[in-house]
Design a protein that fits this description.
heterodimer; A: 401 residues; two-stranded antiparallel ribbon; 43% helix; B: 325 residues; 4-stranded antiparallel β-sheet; 38% helix; elongated; ribonucleoprotein (chain A)
């Protein structure tokens, strides 16, 4: 989900004055009366919903419909990240987490169902302009993956570790590497919350001994959850725990003990050249030296089986100098291309007509758009024109109505 | 002496002149007194000033204006005789209702009368097509016939691949010369130079933006010498040097790295290694055409640039490769 604020849109909208069907209440009141005289009495607009809340069962017939993500599942899967902040506040306002069923997510889910797990992991990269719905499509796909018993390695918004990290310390174990103590703890908690059920049933074990300090040792054959819990309790070792967990999971997947889905939002940030952390010699650190980055990058390779990688490339995940295009090869740079090739690029685009109808119906149903002109034909066309059918822009416009 | 109003300065001066000419000593007296002296009448006392006598309005002499020339021009006149040489725009001679310039607010575009903008810009009224045709016809007798064997552009390109152009200038000012006459431009198509891949790449790196990719032409402009003959020789010298240097391979050229390459080369690339990994782990053998298609698509994605068509071809090819299509 894009983070940009289109202030210009706000400006132009407030300048609209009397010609807008949505802003001037007086004019609309008159028009509403005229409509009610002319047309049939106002039909209550309801959101087109579907009761099929299992993404695995959704087909093309449900395109444009809204399905509900139960509160407890949403909390379990995305409690510590995954759903974009603004959308999360909107869900809180509406008292429900509903997602629109759109083509890119359904296509990816379809491909995941048909994946040949004996080959190196298929990489599905969602790409598109800013604010077009990549992050929310990933949310939809993650929901499917967790329902389909995939072990989730979910990276909510990768650039946070490169640009907005809480703390970075030099690694105690490997010189030249840098840890994220607090961010790693949060991720391990997230991993545990998403996969707790599956880890219990799968009973994965460590294959080798991990010595964290003189007193803390994890023996070979111990349950994998032990490493996760150790990392959560000891922030100093959390990044190394992530490294251990990912290595172990890779081995388990290759030996067909589980199937692993790596979901990464903003994967192109892994291949950026600078982070915000300044070393003593005043240069910015290359993010490839981060322990957690190395831990996840080993999952992007081709040398394991029984897995799938679903990611999004976002121009906002790159540094400011490399944001000209939204196309994946440009955003991934040489290094990202070499790591991820061959991948399947999946385009996510703006709303089409069906989806525009659906979103406006949903907002009207949730009483977010209370102006009677909103659901009229003119109002809809005006919303489509102002936002150019871009989901994020439309959300921002409707916030002020 | 009574001093009354109504004595105009003109009258005053007239009186004095009169007095001066007549050699009469006069004290200033009023108009009536003067009149009385002249006419030897009883002097009238005028208490009120005389009304201002309106002088007749100045009559402007109406000149006989000749109507503008274009009104007297015939429709089928010979325009070449009206405008035989380059001339500043003259609105009365041009029978066209031309307008030029940015209109003031609320006004229309200014017309041709007294239009400085129209007069400033060069006009080509002396070079209308019939006039040009006439001039060409007149020049024809001084021309030699076009050589046989080079009628078409392809033949011209084949036998005369190099095109050299320069301009000459003639001034009718104190100096005849113009410095711009020393500039010489040499144009040659790279197809005419027998260059292999390495030679072409090296030449393009040497000439940089002097090469036009759309027409595949190299253009060399020389103006560093004072005489055009010297610049001409310099152009050919440059061409010779460029060609010979491109054909040579220097010992350090083997240090060229992947980042220096001008196009994407498949052999030895990580994409090839990744493809191999997929082929190896596939139990059913991957068809040859799928591999070839993938290779071609990846090369196109890099060499032709990334956009929706190349990306969608890449997507289809990868899907076939991993068995999703």
């Amino acid at each position: 989900m894009a983070r940009l604020l289109s202030r210009n849109i706000f400006q132009s909208f407030s300048d609209f004055g009397g010609c807008s069907a949505l802003v001037r209440n007086v004019a609309v009141g008159r028009e509403a009366r005229w409509w009610s005289n002319e047309a049939s009495p106002a039909v209550k607009v309801t959101a087109p919903r579907t009761s099929l809340n299992q993404p695995g069962l959704q087909t093309e017939e449900q395109l444009g419909l809204w399905y509900t993500l139960e509160q407890d599942i949403a909390k379990q899967l995305f409690g510590l990240g995954g759903i974009p902040k603004q959308f999360a506040t909107q869900c809180k306002t509406f008292a429900e987490t509903c997602l629109m069923i759109r083509k890119p997510a359904l296509t990816t889910i379809d491909y995941i169902k048909k994946t040949n797990l004996a080959l190196p992991p298929n990489k599905f990269i969602l790409y598109g302009r800013e604010g077009v719905g990549k992050s929310l499509s990933l949310v939809h796909i993650t929901h499917f993956l967790s329902q389909d018993n995939w072990l989730l390695v979910h990276i909510p918004w990768a650039p946070r570790w490169r640009r907005g990290f809480k703390e970075i310390t030099a690694s105690a174990t490997v010189p030249g590497r840098y840890d994220h103590p607090l961010d790693a703890v949060i991720w391990l908690q997230h991993f545990k919350s998403q996969n707790s059920q599956l880890l219990k049933t799968l009973q994965l074990e460590t294959s080798e001994e991990y010595k964290w300090s003189r007193r803390e040792v994890t023996e070979a054959g111990a349950p994998l959850i032990d490493i996760v819990e150790l990392g959560i309790s000891r922030a100093r070792f959390a990044s190394d725990c992530i490294m251990a967990v990912t290595t172990e999971l890779k081995k388990h997947a290759t030996h067909q003990r589980c199937k692993i889905a790596v979901v990464a939002d903003g994967i192109n940030t892994f291949f950026c050249l600078t982070s915000r952390y300044r070393l003593e010699d005043l240069t910015y650190l290359n993010p490839e030296n981060f322990t957690i980055f190395q831990a996840f990058m080993q999952l992007f390779n081709n040398n394991w089986r029984n897995g799938v990688v679903v990611a999004s490339v976002d121009s906002l995940a790159n540094d400011g100098a490399r944001r000209e295009s939204y196309l994946p090869r440009y955003l991934l740079r040489q290094k990202g291309w070499e790591t991820l090739d061959p991948f399947i690029p999946i385009l996510v685009s703006n709303y089409n007509e069906l989806e525009m109808q659906s979103i406006v119906d949903y907002y009207v149903d949730r009483n977010w758009l209370q102006n009677p002109g909103a659901s009229s034909d003119t109002g809809r066309r005006e919303l489509a024109g102002l936002s150019s059918c871009n989901p994020y822009t439309l959300m921002n416009i409707c916030n002020s109505l | 002496m009574l001093k009354l109003g109504g004595v105009t300065p003109r009258l005053y001066s007239q009186v004095l002149r009169l007095a001066a000419s007549c050699n009469i000593h006069t004290t200033l007296s009023t108009f009536s007194e003067l009149k009385a002296e002249e006419n030897e009448e009883f002097r009238t006392l005028e208490l009120r000033s005389k009304k201002f006598v309106r002088q007749p309005a100045r009559v402007m002499k109406s000149h006989n204006v000749v109507p503008p020339r274009y009104k007297r021009q015939k429709v089928d006149q010979d325009w070449g005789n009206v405008w035989p040489a380059a001339r500043t725009f003259h609105p009365a001679s041009v029978p066209l209702p031309v307008r030029q310039g940015y209109p003031a607010s609320g006004q229309v575009t200014p017309d041709k009368w007294g239009n400085a903008e129209l007069m400033k810009i060069p006009n080509f009224l002396h070079l209308t097509p019939p006039v040009i045709k006439r001039q060409c016809e007149a020049l024809k007798k001084f021309c030699t016939p076009w050589p046989s064997g080079i009628e078409t552009a392809a033949e011209q390109e084949k036998y005369f691949p190099v095109m050299v152009s320069k301009s000459t200038y003639l001034h009718s000012s104190p100096t005849l010369r113009d410095q711009k006459a020393r500039i010489v431009t040499l144009r040659v198509s790279l197809k005419s130079l027998d260059l292999d891949d390495h030679g072409r790449d090296k030449l393009l790196r040497l000439v940089k933006n002097r090469h036009d990719p759309t027409t595949d032409c190299l253009t060399i402009v020389a103006d560093r010498c004072p005489l055009s003959q010297q610049n001409y020789d310099y152009c050919f010298y440059l061409l010779t040097v460029l060609y010979n240097e491109s054909m040579k391979t220097e010992p350090w050229e083997h240090e060229k790295e992947v980042a220096d390459r001008e196009r994407y080369i498949w052999e030895g690339s990580p994409s090839q290694a990744a493809l191999q990994a997929i082929i190896d782990s596939n139990e059913d053998s991957t068809p040859e055409e799928v591999i070839e298609e993938y290779k071609k698509v990846v090369i196109d994605l890099h060499n032709e640039g990334e956009d929706e068509p190349t990306l969608s071809r890449y997507r289809d090819s990868v899907m076939k490769l991993v068995g999703l299509a």
